[in-house]
Predict the 3D structure of the following.
Amino acid sequence: MEVLEALRGRQSIKSYLPIPVEEEKLQAVLEAGRLAPSSYNSQCRKFLVVTDPALRKALHDRAGTQPMIEQAPVVIVICATPDQEHADAMPCGESKHPIDAALSGAYMMLEAYAQGLGTCWLGAFDAEAVKEVLGIPRDVKVVTMMPLGYHDGTQPRRDRKPLEELVSRNRF
Ligand SMILES: Cc1cc2nc3c(=O)[nH]c(=O)nc-3n(C[C@H](O)[C@H](O)[C@H](O)COP(=O)(O)O)c2cc1C
């Protein structure tokens, strides 16, 4: 599949079918996350694969997030683990851990699309509650929870601004 085809086809899927995800497809999605770049190539990340229905229900009930967490057969929790060698603030002033995690998540979302699966990046949840439910250490940051699963393909597509609104050349 062409990269642009996947980029144009991917959507944030909000409703999932009760169909299990094949292990080889899950592995391909995780592998995509593993291949993502990271600051200093530090790869300070961990992907928690949550399939246990009781845990997904607990995440839904206690972390205050959307129904898709309970509905999707798989939830991938992307965490940033402590970096012993580098400060989190990069010279540009930005924090590196959410960017590293977002790149892994973006790669996973595209591979999931190529595998015929839906995903949705989630930011609306209580990270401390997620840590409690899943036994995640204090010094690890939970950056997103991403449901993964099959869907019925009927969700309307959301628009993007035209390039002319986004791009300028040479000067802002
Ligand atoms: C950082 C981030 C946080 C998001 N958080 C949520 C969320 O908590 N719940 C949700 O339903 N969608 C969430 N989304 C999905 C966006 O709403 C979605 O990407 C956007 O509306 C564009 O839709 P599309 O991805 O289908 O093109 C999030 C996306 C990003 C990038």
About this structure: Residues 3-166 form a domain with the NADH Oxidase fold (CATH 3.40.109.10). The beta strands are 45-50, 74-80, 118-119, 141-149. Residues 11-12, 14, 66, 120-124, 158 surround flavin mononucleotide (CB under 6 Å). The mean pLDDT is 97.
